[in-house]
Amino acid sequence: MRRNRSSIFARSPEFCQRVSAACSEETTDAAITTWAQAYAFCESPRHARLTMPNPALVVETLNGTPAPTDYWQALRHDQSAPMPI
Fold first, then answer.
1. Mean confidence (pLDDT) of the chain
2. pTM of the model
């Protein structure tokens, strides 16, 4: 079972460091967009996930939260279900 392995404690910070490096931008607005393309922002922890940023994703800001449009579509579809990974 993956959750019982201690290696997850080493891999998680390493992945976060890679995402952080990939989200480095010249301006604040560009950084916010890039972080949003990594699903770094969410309205509820139930829908939290973090991926490498995907520049192909269109970011939409609703209620002050920038996120890819598929995130908002999933929330509108079923707010109680976790986001698909």
1. 84
2. 0.75
The structure tokens listed for 43 are 């309205």
Q: Side chain identity at 19, as an amino acid letter? A: V
Cα dihedral sign for 28, 25, 37, 3? negative
**Maximum CA pair distance of the chain?**
42
Q: Is the dihedral of CA 55, 31, 60, 42 positive or negative?
A: positive
Residues whose CB falls within 8 Å of the CB of residue 84, separated by 6 or more in sequence, listed in order = 74
- Report d(CA 20, CA 84) in Å as an integer: 22
Number of Cα atoms under 13 Å in the Cβ half of residue 7? 3
Measure the CA angle with vertex 9, ends 7 and 11; round to 5°: 70
Tell me: pLDDT of 59 over 70: yes
